[in-house]
Amino acid sequence: MKYEIILFDADETLFDFRKSEREALKETMLEFNIKYDEEYHLKIYKEINNAIWKELEEGAITQQKLKFERFKRLSNRLEDKFNEIEFSKSFIKNLAEASFLFEDSVTLIRSLQENCRLAIITNGLKDVQNYRIKKSVIGKYFEDIVISEEVKVAKPDSKIFEQALNNLKHTDKSKVLMVGDSLTSDIQGGINFGIDTCWFNPRKTVNTTKIKPTFEIANLMEVKDIV
Q1: CATH for 17-96?
Q2: pTM of structure
Q3: Where in the chain are all domains bearing CATH 3.40.50.1000?
Q4: Looking at residue 199, what is its pLDDT?
Q5: Which candidate in 10, 127, 186, 205 could, as Cys together with 182 as Cys, close a disulfide (CB 3.0–4.6 Å)?
């Protein structure tokens, strides 16, 4: 095996986060007696949420503030006003309970764990990610789950990768591969840390950035051919 350690991103790599997010937002809106229109509300929420997680990557906002600030911004955009703190608590609860895996995730992880050590590095909230990942059928195959909120640093900062390898007591970076769907967090983070990277690009998006992954795949099962 070329690689001994495979570091995975969670959402939109192994887990269908878009589906989880969609379900959680719907349930939360209904709990707050808001007449939910998915086409309208989801579009606005995703616009706000994507922007604020980008701010986190750039170090412009803390994860603690992010939890509530995104819903404060959402409330300000909508005619239906709500308390962003209570809304956030409800949304996080609903999101934690919405765990959906991509079709190939189980097969791939079960196959890889026979010869590789596996861990997850995720820019996420501990109350969401711990529950969603650990309760999934693949949760038991990961030696460690490093969550940005817990370690107080987020991808693409190399320190979160350093934390993961320290937890695994592994020092040889040449034997480590990072697999993820985000060029700016997963791939750039792996590059910053000095390890090989695999960009999971199922939509075959054209890479117009200067970020160059070691590998690029459109099908998750292609990871087996790389390792």
Answers
A1: 1.10.150.240
A2: 0.91
A3: 5-16+101-226
A4: 98
A5: 186
